[in-house]
Amino acid sequence: MAGAKQNVGKTTFACEIINHIKSLKKKVYAIKISPHFHDKTPPRTIFSDHRFILSLEQETTTLKDSSRMKAAGADEVFFLQVKDLHLKEAFNYTLSMIPPDDFIVIESGGLRNILKPALFFFLESVNKGTIKENAQANRLLADKIVEFDGDDFNFQIKNIKIVEGKIELNT
Q: Whole-prediction pTM value?
């Protein structure tokens, strides 16, 4: 999933999806991808060099997006700090640590440029406002545009189904 800008409910929505998939008794991993290097030496670093930093989130009580995903029930949460130039390589490295039949919830603005997920949600404010220039293309690629009013979404998470091991929208 990606969003129009900050504070449009991306992480809250991701957490609701994680919780929903767990309620269906499935394993789910989460990946938070940031093009900004917030912490050059995060705890539980798996890999770090000039291209990207990958760490494993274990905390469930901080306000970090990755911590919130872990608290929502994700079996494992990876925090990937990477510029778009190295995103494909870094994502493939991260993906190699996740069993192929498990579900993955990903929050990233840039990944949609190199990957077509099973479902791609685009989050925006109910008041619309300005959409970041680099997010406008993502909006056009969305399987579902979800509006957030600060408290609720105009989409019911229960409309996400798993059929024969595949995730899909119940239309």
A: 0.96
